[in-house]
Each structure stands twice: as structure tokens, then as C-alpha cells.
């Protein structure tokens, strides 16, 4: 029987900034046009984090029953390690997605934007079929695109729109920044797993590109938020605060650029995630100060 600590590990805490940061910056974009709503932001955060946890448990379950995690060098896996029954991990995924769905329905009812129910349904299906089903799109090199869309435009602009009823240029820029660095987290994860994924038949984008080009992709993606911050200064000079997140990212960049592999790449996920959250908080502070 898996311990409480192992179940927490199964949520993959290092990846949770992917779901927190977009909501933070989306709420700040709403505040920038004087439309910030605390309750809507909290509900959006619950939706985002619950879906993220649901995706992580679903990924654990699906990869585990396929044998993809049998020889993985990455973080602890509940199903692959045998610490928890596959059915219980699947149930945890469904419960997490259910919590997100309930919070999403409440948010839709309060805001009155009923069409967002369809949007939420698409997000739930995307969460499950990333590695679930007979033809998971995460096994076809489409994971990074999905992460960019769900944790970029969907999370940022969704948080902004539900509070304001509109999409702003600042919101679009922030959504591209969040989507890019969120995708970089997955790229780093898949870079580490190229050897085992290739053997198990998991054809990620990293497997398709190969080691060298995957590293180049990671470096390009993590540069995007800083280019966006620079562009934002045309309207929001305080957006330069986002550059204070660069030192947090530097250890990850060094490991990837130096050609490190295996377990040496595990901290890259954490550094990238923290840098993403730091960028979101700092740029959000800039939007509030503007």
C-alpha cells in the first residue's frame, strides 16, 4: 500500500507551477484593467491545479500499465513501481479531474459564460487522452503542443476572460510566455527519458528530434518569456521585473546546455517550474504596480 508521502509524490509537485503560474498572471492581467475578482481567481486556480494533478495521476496510470515506466530514471511512479494498484491510481485521476470539473461548473454558473462548459470538457478529454486510450497523443509527439495550449492560452486567457469578458494584448503575451515555459518543462522531462521512451515505443517529440535538437528546443522555449517581458515594457515598464527570474532558471539552462543526462536532468524540471512561477509573480507585480 502506497504511503501518503508516495501519493503526494505521485502528484509530481515539481510540475505544479505549470498550473499555478498561468492563473496568477491571468488574474494580474484582469487586475490591470480593473476587473480582478478574488473568488473567480480562486476557482480558476482550483480548476487548474486539480486538472494538473489529474493529468499526472492519469499519466502515472497509463504509462504504468503499458510498461513505459518500468525502467524510468525520473521521479517516483505509483503504478510503475508497484506501490499502488493501477485501479486506485486511475481512481485518483478521476477524483482529481472531478474536483476540477465541479469548481469549473461553479465558475461558469457564477460568471454566466455557459459556453465555457464545452471548453472545460475539451480540457478534461485532453487530460485523459494525453497518455490514455488506444492512441494517446502524448505518444505521437503532440504533448508539447497540448501543454503549450492548455497551460498557456487556455489557462491564462481563460482566467482573464472569465473575470473581464475580454482578451487583452497583455493577456495574449503572457499566455504565450506561460505556454512556452510550460512546454519547456515537458521537453526537459522527455529529454531525460529519450532512451527509455524510445525502447518502450513512446514516440515523444524528444524521441523524434533527438538529443541535440531537443536541447536546442528547450533553450529556445525558456527564452520566450523574457522576450515577452521585454516586449511588454512598451506598455508596462515594470514588466522588466520578469528578468529577475533569470537567475532561478540559470542552473537548468547550464545542465541542458552542458549535455547532462539521466538523473542529472531531474532538477531541471524543478528549476524551470520555479522560474516559471517566479516570472509569473514578478510580471504580475509589475502589472499591479503599473
TrEMBL record:
<feature type="transmembrane region" description="Helical">
    <location>
        <begin position="38"/>
        <end position="58"/>
    </location>
</feature>
<feature type="transmembrane region" description="Helical">
    <location>
        <begin position="217"/>
        <end position="234"/>
    </location>
</feature>
<dbReference type="InterPro" id="IPR044878">
    <property type="entry name" value="UbiA_sf"/>
</dbReference>
<keyword id="KW-0808">Transferase</keyword>
<keyword id="KW-1133">Transmembrane helix</keyword>
<dbReference type="InterPro" id="IPR026046">
    <property type="entry name" value="UBIAD1"/>
</dbReference>
<dbReference type="GO" id="GO:0046428">
    <property type="term" value="F:1,4-dihydroxy-2-naphthoate polyprenyltransferase activity"/>
</dbReference>
<comment type="function">
    <text>Conversion of 1,4-dihydroxy-2-naphthoate (DHNA) to demethylmenaquinone (DMK).</text>
</comment>
<keyword id="KW-0472">Membrane</keyword>
<keyword id="KW-0474">Menaquinone biosynthesis</keyword>
<feature type="transmembrane region" description="Helical">
    <location>
        <begin position="167"/>
        <end position="188"/>
    </location>
</feature>
<keyword id="KW-1003">Cell membrane</keyword>
<feature type="transmembrane region" description="Helical">
    <location>
        <begin position="89"/>
        <end position="107"/>
    </location>
</feature>
<protein>
    <recommendedName>
        <fullName>1,4-dihydroxy-2-naphthoate octaprenyltransferase</fullName>
        <ecNumber>2.5.1.74</ecNumber>
    </recommendedName>
</protein>
<feature type="transmembrane region" description="Helical">
    <location>
        <begin position="269"/>
        <end position="289"/>
    </location>
</feature>
<dbReference type="Pfam" id="PF01040">
    <property type="entry name" value="UbiA"/>
</dbReference>
<comment type="pathway">
    <text>Quinol/quinone metabolism; menaquinone biosynthesis; menaquinol from 1,4-dihydroxy-2-naphthoate: step 1/2.</text>
</comment>
<feature type="transmembrane region" description="Helical">
    <location>
        <begin position="137"/>
        <end position="161"/>
    </location>
</feature>
<dbReference type="InterPro" id="IPR000537">
    <property type="entry name" value="UbiA_prenyltransferase"/>
</dbReference>
<feature type="transmembrane region" description="Helical">
    <location>
        <begin position="113"/>
        <end position="130"/>
    </location>
</feature>
<dbReference type="InterPro" id="IPR004657">
    <property type="entry name" value="MenA"/>
</dbReference>
<keyword id="KW-0812">Transmembrane</keyword>
<comment type="similarity">
    <text>Belongs to the MenA family. Type 1 subfamily.</text>
</comment>
